[in-house]
Amino acid sequence: MNLVFNSTSEWQREDRDHHLHPFTDIAQLNAKGVRVITHGEGVYIWDSEGNKIIDGMAGLWCVNLGYGRKELIEVATKQMSELAFYNTFFMTTTTPATALASLLAEVTPEGMNHVFYGCSGSESNDTVVRLVWRYWDVKGEPKRKTIIGRNNGYHGSTVIGACLGGMGGMHKQGPLPYPGFAHIDQPHWYINAGDMDPDEYGLLAARQLEDKILELGPDTVAAFIGEPIQGAGGVVVPPDSYWPEIQRICRKYGILLISDEVICGFGRTGEWFGCQSFGFEPDMMTMAKGMSSGYQPISGVMVRQHIVDAIAPTGEFYHGYTYSGHPVATAVAHANISILRDEGVIERVKKDIGPYFQAKVRELGDHPLVGNVRGRGLIAGMELMKNKKTRERFDPVGKTGLICRNHCFENNIIMRATGDAMLLSPPLVISRDEVDELFEKAKMCLDMTARDVGVI
Ligand code: PXG
Fold this sequence. Notes:
By secondary structure, the protein is an alpha/beta fold. The chain has helices at residues 8-18, 26-32, 58-61, 70-82, 95-107, 121-138, 159-164, 168-172, 189-192, 198-216, 242-253, 274-278, 305-311, 327-342, 345-363, 399-410, 432-453, and strands at 37-41, 44-47, 52-55, 112-118, 146-150, 181-184, 221-226, 256-260, 284-287, 299-304, 370-376, 379-384, 413-414, 416-418, 421-424. The radius of gyration is 22 Å and the shape is globular.
């Protein structure tokens, strides 16, 4: 079987003929031809035409240590030769699976001492749901089944991930969400709040949770799940008042609070976890992406002690994946987290490169197309507006974002578009010079977009 093709057009042909891509308009892709990425180093990737591209999205919000870290490659190679696979079912473990669990207990918030492993954020959110249901069963409150998420929240693409999330497009393509999943608004101050004080709006947005709990009946609600900063939904940074109020409401009605840290976890916001940036203490956290800097598919749910204590004495929990705690993935994640810790990568996001990046992105707030800039650490969103003075949006929303994304594509910078928000989430190891390059290119693409849509 010939697995190696010689030219971009051959790769494109084979890809078109045999590969179904995630979240992709197939006809559109086939008309254009796929871009073939061949290698990466630091914050750059290269395509099969030799273009060097600055990756403002760290792969897919995940390559926190950047591409080509030798230590991670060596650890994977060594682990594969020692023990490429063994499972963690049936009273067994492997040394990397346990070593990583122990390290995770150290770097995650106080009181979180146990991890349940998966291979993707979606899988781990399925695990969260199984754990939530089990918890309330063993606590003697089996009526508590409903989980509340948020519109435009993203928790993955499995059936349950899509139920937890609030992506209308995904829901429409299935009979989703299933009963037992409910949603409140996202805390999007700029779009929803007019001139209201952000903290006042944060409280208002959080109180929708209380309204929803009362509407559903407090004794039927099991948990609330949210991303500290919504990522795929447009880098929606809630006002500071939001999360403490959400926590207060969860505690008041005794419902579990879940932080989906798949994007925010492992340093993205300048703290180890997003919940620490926003001052709340979840009962469980979903982690993936930055857990291994994307070098291996791995995820986990961190579970607070009181949940473990409730479930542990009650017999078998019928849940798990063949690759839960995969030895190569856990070995690589262990090396990745050790580097994040020992090299002070997250400290640097908090004190140096994060503030530098945020100052730079806020300069783009002066751009005629950019109505709102938001972010923390090394994550940012810029909302493109038809008229920033009157906060008039483009119609339809999304077309301008796509135009901008296409300019980025042509000019060798990766930015993601959600609606008309342009998003950045570069590797945490990005240098100041690379941040400068990123924003030079971003501004150029914004200028081109502004000309296309007649804003300058
Ligand atoms: N939770 C959050 C907060 C995520 O961002 C998932 C769960 C699911 O993880 P997996 O590993 O199953 O994909 C995610 C994933 C985008 C994009 O276009 C974002 C994600 C995935 C794919 C595309 O922004 N986030």
